[in-house]
Amino acid sequence: MRLDLKLTGCRAVTMDPARPAAHTIGIWQGRIAGLDEQVEHLPAAETVDLGNAVVLPGFIDAHTHLAWNGRRTIDVTGLATVTQVVERLAGAPGEGWIEASGYDRRIMDRPLTAADLDPVTGERLLYIADISGHACVVNSVVLRQLPGITSDGWLTENEQLAARSLRLPYSLEEIVAELHRSARQVLSEGVTMCAEAGIGAGLIASSPLEAAAYQRAELPIRVQLMVSAYVLHDVAAEPADGISRAIDLGLHTGFGGDMLSLGAMKLWTDGGMIARTAALSEPYIGTTNSGQLAESDEFMRAAIVDGHHAGWQLAIHAIGDRAIDFTLDAVAEAQRRRPREDARHRIEHCGLVRPHQLERIATLGLIPVVQPTFLWSYGDDYSEIMGEKRAPWMYRGRSFLDHGITVAGSSDRPVADGSPLRAIEFMVRRRSRGGRAVGPDEAITVEEAIRAYTLGSAYACRKEHVLGSLTPGKLADLVVLGDDPRTSDAIADIPVLATIVGGTLMPQRSS
Q1: CATH number of domain containing 485
Q2: What is the pLDDT of residues 381-417, one digit of tens each?
Q3: What's the rounded Cα separation, in Å, for the pair 125 and 412?
Q4: Does 64 reside within a domain?
Q5: Residue 200 is part of which domain span?
Q6: Rg of the Cα atoms in the chain
Q7: How far apart are CA 484 and CA 155, in angstroms?
Q8: How many CB atoms lie within 10 A of CB 501?
Q9: Is the separation of the CB atoms in 479 and 55 below 8 Å?
Q10: 3-class DSSP state for residue 209?
Q11: Could you read off the pLDDT of 471-500 as tens digits, one per residue?
């Protein structure tokens, strides 16, 4: 046997308890052929001495937005005054829509309004995305096309979706370009697989043909597509099948191959903490606002039950504890009506979890798909709006693991920093960008944090049989690091030297 690639002189952290460490990795036909003595004697078409670098399984981002992240818009990130934003938008090139992103209402001298924007946009339609993805600011030209909506320009949730729908769809050519830009970025951070969180319809979708863009793109990373529950429709199936709604051809979770496949069905039950629309059981501190559920109870419950019956794994967006209550009740009902072993339904974000909700999450076998860098980026703000009692409940780690719950790591890119190493550091240190301790009792070990971004995310994506550990027979997805996260004092700053997807070595940066 002649290997395609042999990696020598490395410190491999395999995440496989049967063989936790290795110094030589053999790769053949895109898979790991063996480790150490299993392959040391075999010839190889290419041998690379890694010079004592650390090798981990490729990071898996279980919840991200590649097209949105790669979209080119006017960037207003960090601008804190109305004057600055208006000046950035003045003289926007081109014709048609003006699109901007990075708006953060929390840091503004005062909220931006349509009246501020109208003088610099004229009759062009304007859409400025809030960093949360759950709100926007538009000008009066857009507002005139939204009958029944009364606003000064600030729109959240379904009103935001109505405004964004005026712009849709993006062309397949645009989406393909966006995907390639994002793929280059995630590879540079050691990510080898992404789960795209919501295509076809809903807040994040770009086109009803969005899956075709992923087929055309032929990206150098693995992608799993979450289909929006909004595309469920009535089907005339055999009554004995018990499926009243599905997507065309009855496709569901698991369809596809190693590079591109269908994952979970994405559903939304509430908004987000940045926009103050996450549904809470008690109001945000200093307000009477408890956020909001995304749709009526009947609509959301039917989507969960019908999606479950149609064979989908469900990825249910629930950030606030009230939304999590609803999710737990609806999933329990779906399982009562049609029990499914190993359904592996997921709670996307699972942002604020009361202590007594932990046992229910464990009992139902739900998988929290968390974004640790939310608290690194926004932990100071989130702690203030949750208050002393609730702040320790945010984006838990230790409590999940202690209840036997599998945790999956993700970024929600571009809402927050997408680097898995940054997220791993937060999971271990539990300190915000400003140095504030955020739920320090929820800290986990470095090995546990790495597991969340490898085997944990692989499990959440139903790929643990082929990804997540450096095990002979699994797909050869690896990341080569300049230092060992287990001993580093600055995990987020460790250089990513190379990323390997299916045995293809892609150098990223020098040490």
Answers
A1: 2.30.40.10
A2: 999 999 999 999 999 999 999 999 999 999 999 999 9
A3: 27
A4: no
A5: 172-460
A6: 23
A7: 45
A8: 24
A9: yes
A10: coil
A11: 999 999 999 999 999 999 999 999 999 999
